[in-house]
Amino acid sequence: MKAEQSTQDLSFNNQERFSENGTLGDETVDSNAGQKGLDLSPVVRMVQRNAFLIAGVTTISAALVASSMLNGPRTFKGNFQVLVEPITSQARLSDPAAISRPLAQQGDGVDYPTLLQVLQSPELLAKIATEIQRRYPDVSANSLATAVSTKNLEIRRHEVESQRFGSQSSEPTKLIQVSYKGTDPQKVEFILQELAKGYLRYSLEDRKTRIGGGVQFIEDQLPSLQLRVNDLEAELQALKQRYRITDPTTEGAELSKQAQEVQSQQLETQRNLVEQQALYQRLQAQLGATPEVALAAASLSENTSYQSLVAELKKVEAELAAKSARYNDASPVIQAIKERQRKLEQLLATEARKNLGLSGSGASIDPRVLSFQNALRVDLIKQLVAASNTAQQLQVRRQAIAQSQVFLNQKLQEFPVVVRQYTGLSQRLELARTTLNQFLTQRETLRIEAAQKEVPWEIVSAPTIERDGANNPIPSANVEPKFLIVALGACLVLGLAVALLKEKYQNRFFSPEDMEGALKLPLLGRIPFHKGLGQGTGSLSAPRSSAFSKAFSSLYTNIRFLGSKPSARSLIISSAESGDGKTTTALNLALEAASMGQRVLLVDANLRSPQIHALLSLPNSAGLNEVLTGKTEAEQVTQRAPADSNLSVLTSGQSLMDSGRLLASKEMQNLMQKLRDRFDLVIYDTPALSEFPDANFLADQSNGFIFVAGVSKTKRSKLTQVLAEMNKFRLPILGLVPNHPGKSTANAYSQSNQYGQSYGEKPTLLENLKILKPSESAAERSGDTSR
């Protein structure tokens, strides 16, 4: 399988590589390229080839299965039906449950899948089996469970056929149908009767058990529910006391209103503060002093003692100025006046400190304080002091409002949490109270239902088995149609499996289509069987049939138009095994190309077991081997084929067992390039790749491989393995040529078991050979090469 996957990848790699050489591109036709989805054609062909085998295996196995079914013991089948719920609304009203439950709460839905599982559960069957064992000790819970699994005991919902919209359909009913079959009719009927009794007992016990369990469940839950209600009420009361709330909705709105009012006050205070600060700055700029300095200056301006001293000082200064014009500074008159001036200044300073409340003679006084303030400046000073005081008051008020705002914001942030807690507790309390009330109501309802004794189910069809007019049990059919269809299908699958194993064991490709589908390689042609190749008359002495000639004409055409221009110039013909017909394919392909006017060279690169010279009756004393070893030149040993003047042949020369070394040499690479330049088409016949990988060394200087495979002859595993190896080394493969497809394939291949043995005896027609001389080769090289 892995090898086949590798060959699938090979097709793309080969096309990509050949496109680089200019011979195989996007125009390559793959017969599988258009197929999409699942391809069933290989399966169809396999079925067609093995139709008789599949039919035989299917018929025999079906006959055995039918015989075993028809010859089995006779069985008897019986059934009964039980109604598990009321049919109409009036019937529901008369149901015991209607006394305690409203009709809207009763519903009409029964979980039938679960009910069916319960009715065939081991626990319920064990109780019924205990009653059956009184008469039939061999019946047990295990035997009844086995009967369920083998469909001898069936418990299902009864369905009726109805016609809707012109088509038949099955509708389920409210009936449970129980059927049982066995070999003893009396035992079957008795078991059905006990099953009916057991199910009726179960319906009554189940209701009582269910109701009793419900009451007990409610009794168990009531204390915890009551405790939960009490706890929630206590939590809600504590929450109200902690946050001093009664109605969270009203209190939240009031708190929001207060926050808005505080916000308005804050904005108003801020606006007034800005106005007072602007007035203060403007007055201070006009006076050029702070409020303290301005107050001190105004106080001195209104002090009469200070002002009289100032007047007297001015007189002394005037006198000093007058005397200084007449006397110098050292004059006693000047000195006396200065002394009076100094004393007056001291008195002014003393009076100023006394007026300003400064203690000590060392305290300094701002000169602006000593300046005289008129009435206008005194009024401005009063406004400055008032603005300063008002601004300070507004700042204090703003701080108080900010504190109130912080407090309210904190309350607003906490209030949603409180409201959420209050709402959550209220909802949980309401739910707990509702649940508690519902449990109390349901407990009383179930107690009323528990007092009812009526069986809730009803047997509508008594347990019975089929009987004839004489009241004798009628056996049922041993084989049901659906089981017979399944058995026939299994027999057909068995026949297909046998055919598949047969082909797997044969390990062959039985048609070209099988090769194409499995190998994912394009089919270049199909070579039919030609009887003249195995008659011992020489390969060219017997005429080729019309189908044989057309096959190679088609093969050559497909190769010519395989890719875009230029066409292939160098081809390697190979196969996976010996005897696949690659040598015959190479020879006839060369003849076909030569008949089309192409200058063709056929090279026998099978240095281990050459065949070309024998098929063409040519001497093989010197050839490719001697050219590669340097003993001669290619022009000297290239021979003209007797069948066609356009066909030249380079035989293998003397056989060698280490031919791989020569084909991998640099001389071989140079020779291939030289021959490709001389001829329109060079064809290399090579050994089978499963035996010798000699042909792989020729891949680099060629356009690619043409793979020949024998239909119904080549081993599938060996072919896929060889192609996987070629894919591993990314060797180009142009396509596949199936050889000998048809009914006579097996006979054709049975005539030989050696490589090339079926192609006639060695010829002795040496007089028909024509060895090309160097002059002829030169003339041929000088001819038209545009084809």
Q: Give the beta-strand count.
A: 12
What Rg, in angstroms, do the CA atoms define?
61 Å
User: What's the CATH first level of the domain at 522-781?
Assistant: Alpha Beta
CATH topology of the domain at 522-781: Rossmann fold
What is the rounded distance between the termini? 44 Å
Helix content range: 55-70%
Measured by DSSP, the beta-strand proportion falls in: 5-15%
Give the low-confidence spans. 1-35, 89-100, 102-108, 534-539, 743-787
The CATH architecture assignment of the domain at 522-781 turns out to be 3-Layer(aba) Sandwich
Report on this model:
- Among the domains are: 147 residues, no CATH class; 260 residues, Rossmann fold (3-Layer(aba) Sandwich), CATH 3.40.50.
- It is α/β, with parallel strands linked by helices.
- The chain is built from 27 helices and 12 strands.
- An 8-stranded mixed β-sheet has the order 11-10-5-9-6-8-7-12, sandwiched between helices. Strands 2-3-1-4 form a 4-stranded antiparallel β-sheet.
- Helix 25 links the parallel strand 10 and strand 11.
Q: What are the key terms here?
A:
787 residues; alpha/beta; Rossmann fold; four-stranded antiparallel sheet; 27 helices; 12 strands; disordered N terminus; disordered C terminus
